[in-house]
Design a protein that fits this description.
heterodimer; A: 305 residues; mainly alpha; two-stranded antiparallel sheet; B: 452 residues; alpha+beta; four-stranded antiparallel β-sheet; 13 strands
């Protein structure tokens, strides 16, 4: 092939430009830290990174939800702990009252404490979380769940607790509804129970018939109290299971997050060592192209004429 | 001896002419489109004589390979087309995939704000957040629509510029056709070399704007055809291309010749690249973007309609869209207007099931069988693939162009070493011819001296 000046010139120029483009690209990757500046750099990797990022955002939200639910369940758990204490105390009062040596006056004093326990129970049932939301109102957590009027306590909260997603397909209740805890257990209406128990303790027994009546009421009350206690203990056990599920879900999310981040990082982030050696290689090639250009340009037959 | 003088003079003149041509080659070594020339020498012969009578310097020939030229013209056309479409596709890809301008982050943030709201539906702050993210994504759709409109406007402007250049080039070619034809056509006569070079150069410039077919005529003129064979140069006559604007500056323009629209037939040059980008990349991107905006509006609005807001009233539409534009408008200003509770729920209900349903709907197929986020990923990766494919094709075509340029240069280009050698050769021949005349003179002197 005939080689002409313009061919040499054009070819060298193209080579120099190509090299310079490569140098710029390597430098850009190193300084920006990413090799995916736009989708055309690697459309498949870009799609994967975007999908990972979408998933990571959902996971972060689910993890937040888990923290919210778990913090609420801890509040519920500690309130139920209080309920258990009240039940135990109530039981002690009943056993003390059942003792035949107790006087009516002593029982009346026990009854006063029993009514106070009922009031404590109502206070707990209207308990709030750190955000001032009612713990036992179900979904309607801005509504005070229990209101007492003329000795009767009624539930005004929602029939359902709020369901919060903790992964793509599972939701969990962020608490217990008040009626399921205080109204609908095996012991029925716990507020009424404490009031009934106090009534039983206050019962005067002028004759054997009323004494027998009181004794059987005391026995029935104690049994109801045990039922209530068991109900609360069951609920607490259920909460414990829920908390464990939340922990497991949170751990799973942490693992997924690490995997997704590692995957995205491998696709997106610059391998600095590789890019640096690539840059060095391109710079050497650029210098070589510049040197050959000047040497070839200085070659001319005219130099010898 | 008069024979010797004649021979010497013919050699002097011939080599002088050859030196002039060589010098001209050197002078034009860097002239774009110049083809090197050489003088055709032939031995002068007189019938019936044994000894020749010197040398004739005939035509000045131009080194040019019409096949090499045609291939170069074709690759100039394809390369220019790919260069413009690849550049535009790269920029559109950047717009749609750069996190600062793309849909990705606002869409993700909107979905997340809905999730946060579903977890705490009665809180004003989560509702405000949803409305804020709705504004952000509506704004982003508007910005992307503006971006696409700017691409259309740029294409319109560039089409106008290219058509103006094409018209001036085809007029130039028609004028050169006229001058070349006056010179007497393609025959044994001396060719108007520099005019032919100029015309080849103009044809290549034309090819960089639009794909052309050239048909040489007997009188030496060159007919130039575009599209489906519409002649824009026939002999010394040039037909001008026209641009038909749309109703608004955002509407795509059409290229016409003789009143008929040839936009779809243009396959090369900058114009071809602009048309290909518009029909293969920009229009589908616009459709996908509008489908995404429509999908988002439909999903959110139907969830709103299925529930009741904080006042217990059926939820109103959140987004308004007017296709084909992808721009969205946010219709709800009051955070309490978001419907988190299912139909039938009381005012202020803490029921979050409608908000949860919206969160699910946002992740369910709503745009061509894809969820919103997946449809966005598909849009971005489709554009990325197009841009990447065009970039690779442009790289390959520029190698082909360089190769064809090299083939043409190897035939027509000036090699200074070659010219230096020729200069020496003709200079020596010229000196030798001068010596012939001197010898003839000496011989004549000797003869005169003998006769004296």
């Amino acid at each position: 092939m005939r080689v002409t000046q313009s061919m040499l010139y054009r070819q060298t120029l193209t080579t120099l430009q190509d090299r310079q483009t490569n140098v710029m690209q390597a430098q850009d990757q190193i300084s920006s830290g990413t090799r995916l500046n736009q989708a055309k750099d690697d459309p498949v990797a870009m799609a994967r990174v975007m999908r990972n990022d979408d998933l990571l955002q959902s996971l972060t939200r689910q993890d937040d939800n888990i923290q919210i639910v778990s913090s609420r369940l801890q509040f519920v758990e500690s309130e139920l702990d209080g309920v258990t204490d009240i039940m135990h105390r109530g039981r002690e009062l009943m056993i003390a009252g059942a003792n035949a040596t107790q006087s009516d006056e002593a029982r009346a004093a026990l009854a006063i404490e029993m009514r106070a326990l009922g009031e404590d129970l109502l206070r707990i049932a209207n308990g709030q979380d750190g955000q001032g939301r009612y713990l036992f109102a179900g979904q309607d957590d801005a509504t005070q769940p229990f209101v007492e009027a003329a000795g009767v306590t009624t539930y005004q909260g929602a029939a359902q607790a709020r369901e919060i997603p903790i992964d793509a397909s599972t939701t969990m209740s962020n608490g217990l509804t008040g009626d399921s805890v205080f109204m609908n257990g095996a012991a029925g209406d716990l507020f009424a129970m404490f009031s009934d128990l106090a009534d039983t303790l206050e019962m005067t027994t002028p004759d054997a018939a009323t004494t027998a009546q009181r004794n059987s009421d005391m026995e029935a009350g104690l049994a109801q109290l045990d039922n209530g206690l068991n109900h609360v203990l069951d609920l607490r056990a259920g909460l414990g299971v829920d908390m464990q599920r939340l922990d497991a879900a949170s751990e799973r999310i942490a693992t997924l997050q690490i995997n997704l981040q590692a995957d995205s990082s491998a696709l997106r982030d610059t391998d600095v060592a590789e890019s640096l050696s690539q840059l060095a290689l391109e710079l050497t090639a650029l210098e070589a192209a510049q040197q050959t250009f000047t040497r070839i340009q200085s070659l001319s037959l005219f130099n010898y004429l | 001896m008069s024979g010797l003088l004649g021979i010497g003079t013919s050699a002097l003149l011939a080599n002088q002419r050859a030196l002039a041509v060589t010098s001209n080659n050197i002078a034009n070594a860097n002239t774009e489109g110049y083809s090197r020339q050489r003088v055709d020498f032939s031995a002068r012969h007189v019938a019936g004589q044994m000894i020749g009578q010197g040398v004739d310097s005939g035509l000045v020939e131009r080194y040019s390979d019409s096949f090499a030229n045609q291939r170069l013209t074709q690759s100039v056309s394809s390369h220019a087309s790919l260069a413009s479409s690849s550049d535009l596709a790269g920029r559109l890809d950047l717009l749609m995939s750069d996190s600062a301008t793309s849909l990705t982050d606002p869409l993700r943030a909107f979905v997340d704000s809905v999730d946060a709201w579903a977890a705490d539906p009665t809180a004003t702050e989560t509702r405000v957040q949803v409305l804020g993210q709705a504004e952000t994504i509506a704004q982003r759709f508007g910005q992307l629509q503006d971006g696409i409109d700017q691409f259309t406007a740029e294409i319109n402007t560039r089409v106008g510029g290219a058509v103006a250049s094409i018209n001036s080039l085809s007029q130039g070619i028609a004028e050169l056709n006229d001058q070349i034809a006056l010179n007497g056509g393609l025959g044994s006569t001396q060719q108007p070399n520099s005019l032919l070079d100029q015309r080849d150069q103009l044809v290549n410039e034309l090819a960089s704007l639009i794909d052309v077919q050239t048909v040489p005529q007997d009188d030496g003129s060159l007919n130039v055809l575009v599209g489906n064979g519409q002649g824009i140069v026939v002999g010394k006559q040039a037909s001008l291309l026209g641009v038909e604007a749309g109703l608004t500056p955002q509407d795509p323009v059409a290229v016409t010749v003789g009143g008929s629209n040839i936009s779809a037939q243009i396959g090369g040059g900058e114009l071809g690249g602009l048309m290909a980008f518009r029909s293969d990349v920009l229009d589908p991107a616009q459709q996908d973007l509008t489908a995404l905006a429509q999908g988002l509006a439909d999903t959110v609005n139907s969830a709103q309609a299925a529930g009741v807001d904080a006042n217990g009233v059926s939820g109103g539409a959140l987004f308004a869209i007017s296709p084909p534009s992808a721009a969205l408008e946010v219709l709800i200003e009051d955070p309490q207007g978001l419907a988190s509770a299912p139909a039938g729920a009381a005012a202020g209900s803490g029921d979050n099931s409608n908000a949860l349903a919206l969160g699910d709907a946002l992740r369910s197929p709503s745009v061509n069988g894809l969820s919103l986020q997946d449809a966005n990923i598909a849009l971005v990766s489709t554009l990325g693939s197009s841009a990447r494919r065009l970039e690779a094709a442009e790289t390959a075509e520029s190698a082909v162009l360089a190769n064809n340029q090299e083939i043409k240069d190897s035939v027509s280009g000036v090699s200074l070493d070659e010219e230096a050698a020729d200069m020496l050769r003709y200079q020596q021949a010229y000196q030798a011819a001068a010596q012939i005349i001197a010898t003839a003179n000496e011989m004549f002197e000797s003869l005169l001296a003998a006769a004296r």
